[in-house]
Amino acid sequence: MPTLVVIARFASRPECLIAQSLLASEGVETLMPEFNVLMAELDPSMMEHGWRLMGRSDDVFKAQEILRDAQLGDREID
């Protein structure tokens, strides 16, 4: 049974949500454990690790490749 692993970390909630939407459009299921943090009392030490996007260990390489390709955009890879 696959375990959950951190696929990527982001500095902001909107950036993490965009990445999550992109991965969902490619069939990669993810979750953001800190999604509801804005509704709770915010402890600044809680956000030291940033916004985590987690997924199945079986999907980690595919997900990271999708996110890397999205960051490169139209730029060519050397």
Helix content: 25-40%
Q: What is the rounded Rg? A: 14 Å
Oligomer: single chain
- C-alpha end-to-end distance: 37 Å
Instruction: Assign the CATH superfamily.
Output: Hypothetical protein rpa1041
| Residue-averaged pLDDT | 82
| Structural class label | alpha+beta
List how many beta strands DSSP finds.
Answer: 3
Q: Tell me, what is the CATH class?
A: Alpha Beta
Q: What spatial form do the alpha-carbon principal axes imply?
A: globular
Can you tell me the residue ranges where pLDDT is under 50 for at least 5 consecutive residues?
A: none
**Portion in beta strands:** 15-25%
Provide the spatial order of strands within the biggest beta sheet: 1-3-2
* Biggest pleated-sheet summary: 3 strands, antiparallel
| CATH architecture group name | 2-Layer Sandwich
Task: Write up this protein.
The protein has one domain: Hypothetical protein rpa1041 (Alpha-Beta Plaits). Helix content is 33%, strand content 19%. The protein starts with a strand and ends in a 6-residue tail after the last helix. It has a 3-stranded antiparallel β-sheet, covered by helices on one side. It contains 2 helices and 3 strands. The chain has 78 residues and is an alpha+beta fold. It has helices at residues 13-25, 60-72, and strands at 4-10, 30-31, 51-56.
Task: Give a quick set of tags describing it.
78 residues; alpha+beta; Alpha-Beta Plaits; 3-stranded antiparallel β-sheet; 3 strands; globular
